[in-house]
Design goal:
By secondary structure, the protein is α/β, with parallel strands linked by helices. The protein has helices at about 35-45, 60-65, 70-80, 85-95, 110-115, 115-120, 140-150, 210-220, 230-240, 255-270, 275-290, and strands spanning about 5-10, 30, 35, 50-55, 100, 125-130, 130-135, 155-160, 170-180, 180-190, 200-210, 240-245, 250-255. The protein contains 11 helices and 13 strands. The protein has a 9-stranded mixed sheet with strand order 5-4-1-6-11-8-12-10-9. A two-stranded antiparallel sheet has the order 2-3. It has a two-stranded antiparallel ribbon with strand order 7-13.
Length: about 290
């Protein structure tokens, strides 16, 4: 079964990055020279997704503007001889069709996903969280799509974390049925290290059955007074097969300050334009600090 549609929830307030996010969406904070959400949309396109729905909220207009055509800017760049830059700006608008829907109230991730029901219809779909930027080949979402095509079920991306870190994540309980593949029996949200059923942490990539919409519509607000996607997934795994797959790649948590800085540094080191000079700078800095 092909997965043709992806949903990107982007309605959060970004309070962890205040005051930087007072007047701009956290999804538009740059990682070197691209906003974080562009990495997510590029992954969707590279994975074979045909259309994306971004769930937005108040103050998120900059996201729509970023992926829209900018003929005046392109013309200005070409006039100045910056042809490659003009083409880069144009490519952003041609990645794939992007639709937008506003989540009127911040009722949680589960509610944001529920908002996508009409867009998705009755087919399996992807959910991609903007806080997780993943470097992988093939793309992380493509890896999940391949597993979905083999199993026919819903898939959660997971990665192993240190036992002391499990309280930061949703943790999977289940049994391994193949290399890097688990059948999920339950999920525990942010357990203590002693109570965690495993060290498999759910990361922000999902392929979900449309059944999840029926469950979300019946899900009561949970932690923080919000509708939690994890609560719906706990019910889903009792109704239908739900799998967890340990994707191959490197994940950056750009939803918190240290992870954002780490991602910026590592992506800068790999950047074709500034990577070499930045690496030399870090060497000089290390020598100065020793």
């Amino acid at each position: 079964m092909l997965v043709k549609k992806a949903v990107i929830p982007a309605a959060g307030l970004g309070t962890r990055f205040l005051p930087a996010t007072k007047a701009q969406p956290k999804e538009m904070l740059p990682l070197v020279d691209k906003p974080a959400i562009q990495y997510i949309v590029e992954e969707a396109a590279a994975s074979g997704v045909e259309s994306v729905l971004i769930i937005t909220g108040r103050g998120k207009r900059a996201i729509e503007d970023h992926f829209d055509y900018a003929p005046e800017l392109e013309a200005f760049l070409r006039e100045k001889g910056h042809t490659e830059l003009a083409e880069a700006v144009r490519r952003i608008t041609e990645l794939l069709p992007i639709h937008y829907l506003r989540q009127r109230e911040p009722k949680g991730l589960g509610h944001a996903v529920l908002c996508a029901q009409k867009f998705v219809g009755k087919e399996f779909f992807a959910v991609m969280l903007g806080d997780d930027v993943i470097e992988a080949e093939p793309p992380a979402l493509r890896q999940l799509m391949d597993v979905h095509e083999k199993t026919g079920g819903s898939i959660l991306a997971v990665m192993e974390v240190e036992q002391k870190e499990v309280s930061r994540y949703g943790i999977v309980a289940g049994e391994e049925i193949g290399e890097g593949l688990w059948r999920v029996r339950d999920l525990v949200e942010k357990p203590s290290p002693k109570e965690a059923p495993s060290n498999l942490a759910v990361i922000g990539r999902y392929i979900l059955s449309p059944t999840v919409f029926e469950i979300l519509a019946e899900t009561k607000p949970g932690a923080g007074g919000e509708i939690q996607l994890t609560d719906a997934l706990r019910v889903l795994c009792q109704r239908e097969p739900l799998y967890a797959y340990a994707f191959r790649g490197k994940r950056f948590d750009v939803g918190e300050k240290l992870g954002y800085v780490v991602a910026t540094v590592e992506l800068a080191l790999r950047h074709p334009e500034i990577g070499r000079e930045f690496r030399a700078y870090l060497r000089r800095l290390q020598e100065e600090l020793l």
